[in-house]
Structure formats: structure tokens, C-alpha cells
Amino acid sequence: MTHAPHTALSQDELKTLVGRAALAYVVPGQIVGVGTGSTVNKFIDALATIKDQFTGAVSSSVASTERLQALGITVFDCNDVAELAVYIDGADEIDGQGYMIKGGGAALTREKIVAAQSRQFVCIADDSKLVQTLGKFALPVEVIPMATQRILRQFAALGGQARVRLKDGVPLVTDNGQHIVDVTGLQITDPLAFETSVSQWPGVVTMGVFAHQKANVCLLGTAKGVKKILY
Ligand code: 5RP
User: Fold this and answer.
1) 166/162 Cα distance (integer angstroms)
2) In terms of Cα–Cα distance, which of 106, 91, 107 is closest to 216?
3) Angle at 87 (CA atoms; ends 132, 114), nearest 5 degrees
4) How far apart are alpha carbons 20 and 81 in whole angstroms?
5) Domains along the chain?
6) Fewer CB within 10 A of the end CB, N or C, for the chain?
7) What is the pLDDT of residues 44-74, one digit of tens each?
């Protein structure tokens, strides 16, 4: 545990705390994998303070790329980098084994790609994200639009309620030109098997359980400071 604050911290302050703590995992002289979301935005802001110490970033979304570049951090194409030492990203839920639900920010496909290319996944999250069993947060799934209705029926058959994510009243379009369905009512007791199974459904681009690309470390923002959990 590091840094014990004297007064209760807001969720935003906890995100800042873990974003800063993640700087310890940036390998000097190397390229760092960068996720997406409000917690990662805190990490990106912190990263800018040490930008002379590493080479640049591989980013998991247009939003993170724009933020990194605006702060003067070089962003490399994923295809130009063979392997990353570390990928730093948030989560919507993380369990006691480092399995996560991700995709609340609709960036799950690129997040899974960069995570797969990284030797270590460092999850940064406030303690509201810690769960016993994945499934309280709606599971995001990126889908090819022509398969949407079929996929909604498949989740209904499993007891879930799936709906298309909307933005301004129309289906949200991801960075990859696809749609997101969010699934509630699932208790994901075997994340590895569930990820394997749903990932094979025709029309599923990426499902938001990160079990095969699970976290190796979680920096959890708590009332007592940053708790480091190793998996
Ligand atoms: C984006 C993600 C994010 O990591 C996840 O939604 C957590 O975001 P935040 O840090 O804003 O709570 O998976 O696709």
C-alpha cells in the first residue's frame, strides 16, 4: 500500500492516484501500451510529465491517441511494434483472479489487441470496480451490424438481456465502424470458457471479458491509498 490520504478521496481523485502510480511500470526507453477511459486519461496526463524518459505509445483508441498526441507523446502503429513490455488500462470490473469486463468506453477490440501484444497487463481502477463474480456491469460486445439481432437472441437464450448501445439516439459506431451490444443479467462464473465460447459466435468482433488477456497486476485506488494486487 502506498500513500495513505488523510481525508476520503473522490472517485476522480482515486483515478488520479492510480494513474500516477502506473508510471512506475513504464519501462525507460521503451514504448508503452495505453488503454482508454477516464482512469487512463489520468495516466496519460501523468505520462506527459515523464515523456523524455520513454519512446512513445501504442494506443487502443482514437480518443487516447488524440490525448497522447496533444501532450506531445509519439503514437506508434501497432503493426510497427512487435511486442510491448507493458499495457496499462482501466476496467469496468475486475475479479480476484485478474479477469475483467472491459468496453464501457467502446474501445474493447483495440484494447484486446494491444493487451495481447504486451507481456504484462497493469489494470488501474478505483475500488468500485472490484467484484466477486463478473457480470454486474453490462457486458459490452462489439458486433458486425448485420449479425446484431441474431446475437441479441443468442444472449437471450443464455438468460441475458442484450441491447444495442445508442449515442444521440442511433447505434454508437466504434473506431472500427461496428456496433456495441451491452448484455445484463449474466453471472460469468467461468470467464475463460465464456470468452472462448462467445468469441466464436459469427458476427462477434470482440467480447468484453478479458480472461485470456487478464491483468497481471491491479493498482486499486482505495480509501487507504493504492493497493497493489498481483495475479
Ligand atoms: C474502455 C474501457 C475502460 O477501460 C473501462 O470502461 C473503464 O473506464 P473508466 O476508467 O472510465 O471507468 O474498457 O473501453
Assistant:
1) 12
2) 91
3) 100
4) 25
5) 11-131+212-230 (3.40.50.1360), 139-207 (3.30.70.260)
6) N
7) 999 999 999 999 999 999 999 999 999 999 9
Query: Are 122 and 23 contacting, i.e. CB atoms less than 8 angstroms apart?
Result: no
From the CB of 105, is ligand 1 less than 6 Å away?
yes
Structure confidence at residue 31 (pLDDT) = 98
Model confidence band, residue 8 (pLDDT cutoffs 50, 70, 90) = confident
Q: Which of 66, 83, 93, 111 is catalytic?
A: 111
Select from 12, 65, 67, 92 the residue to mutate for testing ligand 1; criterion: most ligand atoms less than 8 Å from CB.
92
Cα separation, 159 vs 186, in Å, equals: 7
pLDDT tens track for 190-231:
999 999 999 999 999 999 999 999 999 999 999 999 999 999
User: What is the best residue among 36, 124, 210 to mutate for testing ligand 1's pocket, by most ligand atoms within 8 Å of CB?
Assistant: 36
User: Is 66 among the catalytic positions?
Assistant: no
